[in-house]
Amino acid sequence: MTTRVFVYEYLSGGGWSDYGDDAAADELLPLGLSMRDAMVADLMRVADCSVSAAVCEPGNTLPARAMPLRSRTNESAFDFVARQSALHDLVWLVAPETDGLLARFQRAVGNARWLGCSAEAIELTAGKKATLAHLAAHGVQTPLAFADAPEIRRWVVKPDDGAGGVATHVHTRHADALEDQALRTQAGATLTLEPWIEGEALSLSLLCTEQNAEMLSINRQCISIDAHGRLSFDGVSVDAVGPGDARRQSLAALAMQVARAIPGLRGFAGIDLVWNPQRGPVVIEVNPRVTCAYVGLSATLGRNLAAELLADRLRGGVHERELARADA
After folding, report:
1. What is the pTM of this model?
2. What is the pLDDT of residue 15?
3. Cα–Cα distance between 131 and 126 in angstroms, integer?
4. How far apart are CA 93 and CA 195, in angstroms?
């Protein structure tokens, strides 16, 4: 039986037009296109799988043999995804957590067809403050542990539900950070202020199943800060920390610790962290979705991650149907 999968990446699927921040959308659109195409290409190599994907004018070319789909005139992104989910067996979707977008899409699709993390995990990790507090309560080291540390020399102000480093500013004076937070809060933004953790910016790519969280790769994040303190995310070097690195064992253990603290992580997920020279890994945020580190990762690892995600989800679907029959 052929499994029909609909891939929807928010910006390349047309969401850029109502993202609300044209500059941010322009900045993030190339990342969205690359993620969409990597997901589609991997799915196209899965036996008995037909693949459709949302496209818009700036990015209307898909990998060969995938079916492009466009929303109707004046159709909202949520209505479009809901309509297509009813025509497909599974929906694999990427959207920013900003303004609750990812959680709203999950509700539009529903659990039965959703390929990814649970609604509870998405809603928790959408807020950076809530995520850090939750992880700290489960023994995970976060920037909260540095709140009164004398070595802190910089502070970061960023949207509590932001993505891609958008609207993130780094300050060398705590008073300036407080003023930045106050001014932007008055303008309607919901912000978080954290100590800036010095060290190497890394991310972990995870493959999460019901029983396990496999650390697929340790990636090096490329981050720059301009003269005005504006932070930019300039991409990621995938699988940059090799098997001989002494940090791998502790980072694999950290991945499991985070997954146990957030049991709804499922499928592909990411953890952003800083390796502090004195205190080791400090978790900055958790991404309950495909990240840009997915691009090229299947080829790097010599395995088809989409096939593994799909197989795990289909096994889970069979189990859910068996439970439903038993309860009937």
Report:
1. 0.94
2. 81
3. 8
4. 32
